Amino acid sequence: MNESTISDKKNKRQKGIASLVARSKKVCNSFLKNEYTYSDAEAVRELGLDSELIARLIEDYIQQIMRAIVSFEELLYELQSAKDAKKELDYTEFRDLAHKNLGVARNLRIKDAEMLLEELMKKDDLEYLFSCTEALYACTIVLNPECAYDALALIEVKSSF
Q1: Which residues contact 73 (CB under 8 A, 6 or more apart)?
Q2: pTM of the model as a whole
Q3: What is the sign of the dihedral through the CA atoms of 128, 43, 151 and 63?
Q4: Number of structural domains, the chain?
Q5: Which of 13, 41, 132, 158 is 20 to 30 A from residue 91's alpha carbon, by CA?
Q6: What is the mean pLDDT of each run of 10 residues along the chain (161 residues)?
């Protein structure tokens, strides 16, 4: 690969990240009605871990939640199909996934994710749940745009197989 190709790929990545962040901030701010910015200070203080370790845990969380969002969407489509077929809706798997991810968000003191995951655990309105899932996706991108972009790229590659 020559320098021009590498530079073009870096520029494309940076533009992709910037676009993703701009769209995500709009979604987060409109859904949450405030501008929330994550700070690791609370997690560092309360968990007794250093900032570098918290940053690595945040990256792991982002990869985990991006995969979970794909599952949330699949489960929501299944629930919508059941609703359309006038069948009883079983939210168990959806809520279990939300609960699993809520624990991680709480441990890392990610307040917007906590709020959204709690909503996913409690509410039954499918349209609202889909909106919460979109907001969770957007807020996760804002948390660490480069990591989120890379996680999305990996999910895209894996889904193409």
Answers
A1: 130, 133
A2: 0.83
A3: negative
A4: 1
A5: 158
A6: 69 74 69 75 92 96 95 97 97 98 95 94 94 92 90 84 74
